[in-house]
Amino acid sequence: MTWYTLLVLAVAAERLAELVVARRNAAWTRARDGVEHGRGHYPAMVVLHTGLLAGCLLEPLLAGRPFLPALGWPALALALLAQALRWWCITTLGPYWNTRVIVVPGARLVGAGPYRFLRHPNYVAVVVEGAALPLVHSAWITATVFTLADAVLLTVRIRCENAALTHAVPA
Description:
This protein is mainly α. The chain is built from 5 helices and 2 strands. Helices cover 68% and strands 4% of the residues.
């Protein structure tokens, strides 16, 4: 469980790094008259993602979940690939990337990197990580609850982003 705890703590540290980048990017976009959309769902997103990390640590401890190599190693590979995809998205969007939905009016849509293939590739990373990270240590309840709750949240979030991006200029 020690190495798994370190993995979850590393993901938590990565989330804090994302927040630093997001805060810097929010200042950049607001300085360019960026408009925030969907503030109402943001606190739920924070709670859900914090709950994911807490559940990853608590469920294996409280329910005695073992590390099952046949499940754990592939789940770890998927969780790491999700991180790589997330940072590919972040670096591709540059200062336009944010944990909030902030759009600079008249800005061009990004059509490079993973955005060549999908409109919202970051959410592929979120979905994969939300299922895979808990399963590294057999936390199937956490994986299931997060996945179901995240499906509801992503429905709201993607609608919000799509509506906000209608003001952007096609690439």
